[in-house]
Design a protein that fits this description.
8-stranded mixed β-sheet; 2,3-Dihydroxybiphenyl 1,2-Dioxygenase, domain 1; mainly beta
Length: about 230
């Protein structure tokens, strides 16, 4: 039985308006900026399409462990970005957003442009994908060649899949992109700890969520049902 359901995505940014404008345009989402705390939010037709953009003081210093894959009709909307992969090198093209966050662009004409997948770098893709599938359900799969693992059809998620790909290096710094979840009926933070999550920060008067980490240290925020 799933312990959580997908809630939304969050991006850390130094220049919130720049990241807000870029991702709103690329993902075709409505956006709103909040003067009181300098954050922003992108919203689509469904609650799961929400992306919060939060101001942070520290710059990006290493390759992201979590990135977004997007669908576009062409590469023209990305012409002003730094291209990180060579033309034709991969079935997709890798770019850096205005703050250097990697994103993969898939040119497809048979579907509307927007968000496609969430990519997660990890040391043990089968183990981490299996762990997350146990938490929130979905359809777990593994590449026959052993190159990656994935979870399709995650309830409430705005993407085709979460893809877990192998990398040799361990996670070194806080992720610039993470996801939030909501506890399922009857589930508790203690259940997540028993399943292998690590408690990083409990709710406070200013924050109503619990910050946790998965078995490879990726942060995620846990909300109680309202």
């Amino acid at each position: 039985m799933p312990l959580v359901t997908f809630k939304d995505l969050c991006i850390d940014a130094n220049d919130v308006p720049a990241i807000q404008g870029f991702w709103a345009r690329v993902l075709h989402l409505e956006s709103e900026f909040f003067d009181d705390d300098g954050s922003a939010v992108l919203r689509g037709a469904r609650p799961g399409q929400t992306i919060w953009i939060n101001p942070v003081p520290e710059p990006r210093t290493v390759k992201n462990r979590v990135h977004l894959d997007v669908v576009a009709a062409s590469l023209e909307p990305f012409a002003d970005l730094e291209q990180l992969s060579r033309d034709g090198e991969l079935p997709w093209t890798v770019f850096a957003d205005p703050e250097g966050n990697q994103l993969c662009v898939f040119v497809q004409h048979d579907r509307p442009p927007g968000l496609k997948d969430v990519g997660v770098d990890c040391v043990d893709p089968p183990a981490l994908a299996t762990w997350w599938a146990g938490l929130w359900g979905g359809e777990l799969g593994h590449d026959p060649d052993g190159d990656y693992s994935f979870i399709d059809a995650i309830p409430g998620a705005p993407v085709d899949s979460f893809d877990f790909a192998p990398v040799p290096e361990p996670r070194k710094v806080k992720n610039r992109l993470h996801w939030d979840v909501v506890l399922a009926d009857g589930a508790t933070v203690a259940d997540l700890v028993a399943a292998g999550a690590t408690l990083l920060a409990e709710p406070t008067d200013d924050t109503r969520w619990t910050v946790m980490a998965d078995p490879e240290g990726n942060e995620f925020c846990v909300f109680a049902q309202r």
